[in-house]
Amino acid sequence: MSSGTGKYERLLQLCETLAPVPTAVVHPCEKTALAGALEAGEKGLIAPILVGPEARIRELAASCGFDLGTAEIVDTPHSEASAAAAVALVREGRAEALMKGSLHTDELMGAVVKRDTGLRTARRVSHCFVMDVPGHPDALIITDAAVNIAPTLKDKVDIVQNAIDLAHDCGVTDVRVAILSAMETVNPDVPSTVEAAALCKMADRKQITGAVLDGPLALDNAINPEAARIKKIDSPVAGRANVLVVPDLEAGNMLAKSLSFLAGADAAGIVLGARVPIILTSRADSVMTRLASCAIAALVAQARRQRSEKAVA
């Protein structure tokens, strides 16, 4: 996921040999939501199953000049029913990913995390942005900026592990995780610095695996080698992090939106920790960002399939 041909283009290249992932598209009743699903279908990233009011979806497609082709439509009366039906498709084995349409994220995630009928696993559900920041050499994974409001240390173990696994699924072999705070020293008055130190020690003890961790780190010395040098921080992560773990949702949301609106970054988004990857797109997303989100889901679904086959063998 580095520069050269472009960070998102590389993700799409990784998917060229993969079969389209059967994906339940939840309530695609608005132009960009339906367009995103159909574009990803045309590119061969997903095989969309459109879950929502059939008459409304067909009317929208006709008014926008979209060709629904052979896309299956599962008819539901409203958005809440769409979320429930999409989750049921996963539980039945008919879908290997979910894609958010024009319903609220809370509605979709409410169906996903239901105890008896949802898609829970032993992992906590968390969100990752895979951000393409102009001028920065590598894609940056930022977590969690959308699901966990004030995660505990226990939550953060899963949040970090989800992000590490995502990086590996996207072809990153050297995963470097920065646990962010406002400073790079442990201060008992700043809880995020204490949690950062604990997470790093948990990685030392193999409670978190697959990456090298460092923290607490401030944003500058996490991603800028010169800032790390000036502060005399000697670690394989400082100045070179490709995964940024924020203290809470507010910090993550502000960081991601600052990069998007001040630095012109694109932000592909995915939710992990459920039985299948969940593609979260925004109406403001570019076509490339929507396709990148689908590509990430396809790579995660493929990796899960391979792990499952290995476990059976």
Structural class: alpha/beta
Order of helices and strands: HEHEHEHEHEEHEHEHHEHEEH
Apparent shape: globular
* Helical amount: 40-55%
Which value, in Å, is the CA radius of gyration?
Answer: 19 Å
Provide a count of the helices: 11
The residue-averaged pLDDT reads: 94
* CATH H-level homologous superfamily name of the domain at 122-273: Isopropylmalate Dehydrogenase
Q: Give me the oligomer status.
A: single chain
Low-confidence stretches: 1-5
The name of the CATH topology of the domain at 122-273 is Isopropylmalate Dehydrogenase
Q: Major β-sheet, in short? A: 11 strands, mixed
| N- and C-termini, Cα separation | 31 Å
Number of strands: 11
Beta-strand fraction estimate: 15-25%
What is the CATH domain class of the domain at 122-273?
Answer: Alpha Beta
Explain the overall architecture.
- The structure is a single chain.
- The chain is of the alpha/beta class and 313 residues long.
- The chain is globular, with a radius of gyration of 19 Å.
- The protein has an eleven-stranded mixed β-sheet, with helices on both faces.
- Helix 7 links the parallel strand 7 and strand 8.
- It has a domain at 122-273: Isopropylmalate Dehydrogenase (3-Layer(aba) Sandwich).
- It starts with 6 loop residues before the first helix and ends with a helix.
- 43% of the residues lie in helices and 18% in strands.
